[in-house]
Amino acid sequence: MISLVVKRALAAIATLAFATFSIATCASAQDYPKRPVTMIVPFAAGGTSDVIARAVAEQMGIALGQTIVIENVAGAGGSTALARASRAEPDGYTIAIGNAGTNAATYTIYPKLPFTPESFVPIAMVAKTFGIIALRKDFPARDLKEFIAYAKANPGKINLGHAGVGSSNYLICKSFVSAAGIDATLVGYRGAAPALTDAVGSQIDGVCDAAASVSQAINEKLVKGLVVGSTVRLATLPELPTSAEAGLPEFEAQGWNGLFAPKGTPPAVIAKLNAAARTAVETDAVKKRFADLSTVAPDDNEHTPELLQQLVTRDVEKYRKMLADDAKQ
C-alpha cells in the first residue's frame, strides 16, 4: 500500500508537471507564430475557397507578422484535405478553410470519414457567398424558364459540373435541381476551376458555382449566367436575376467560408488567429477583393468561433436530411 507521504509526493509532482505544462503552453501562445502558418484549401487553385483563402491569408499574415502559405489539397469533395488537417499538430501552424460542404454535408455523404465535427476547433467565419447557375455560352435556353422546360424535355441529358460530391458547389447543384424539379447529371471535379474550364469549353452544359469564382467568366461572356440563389441582385452581376425574379424562389444558395484548426489547438492561439481573421476581412484590400467577387464579409457579430460552431451544427443536421440518399456505405 502506498504511504501517505508517497501519495503527497506524487500529487506534488503531478501538480508541478501540470503547472510547467501550463506555463510552457502560455509562453508558446504568447510567442505564436514563430514561423509561417499553412492554410489548407480543400480544392484546386482558382475556385471559390481558394480565391477567398488567398485574399484572407495575405492580410492575416500581415496581422500575425508571419506568412500564411496556401496548400491546395483537392479530392473527395474536400475530405482529403480535412483528413490531413485533422491529423496535423494542434499548434496553430496548420489551419484549414472550409464551408458547409466540407465541414457539414460531408459527414452524411461519407459516413466513414477518419474525422468528425469534433476533430476541429472553429476559428472564425471569413466570408458569405452566393450560389450561381451558369451555362455554356451556346446553350439553347435564354432564361431559367426555358432551361427548366428544356431539361424536362431531355431528362438526364443535361450535365452540371461542381467541385466534387460534398463541396458547397455540389450543394448548390442539389438545391437547384430539387427546386427546379429536373433530372440532371451532376459531374464532380477536383475543384470549381476545372469545372468552369469545361463549361467555358462547352464540354459540359453548365456549372453550379459561387459568385466568387464564376462572376468574371459571366462578365466576359465566357459562360452565361442563369440565376443567383440570393434575395438581392449582386453588384458585380446586375443583370443576373435572383431566384425569386426568375420564378424559382425555392432555390436558395447562400453559403459561408470559415477557418478551422485541429482539435487541441490552444485557446490562446485560436484567439490570435480569430483576431487576425477579423482584422483581415476588415481591411480595404479584402473588402475590395470581396466586392469584386460578389462575396460579403461577416457582420460585426459574426466573427466569433461560437457563431461558426453554430453554423456547422446547424448545417450537419440540415444536410443529413437533404442528402440521406447520397450517403456512401
Automatic annotation (TrEMBL):
Keyword Signal: yes
TM segment ranges: none
Top-rank lineage group of the source organism: Bacteria
Keywords in alphabetical order: Signal
CDD domains noted in UniProt: PBP2_BugD_Asp
Database matches in InterPro entries: BUG, Bug_dom1
Keyword Lipid biosynthesis listed: no
Signal peptide: 1-29
Family: Belongs to the UPF0065 (bug) family.
The protein, known as: Tripartite tricarboxylate transporter substrate binding protein BugD
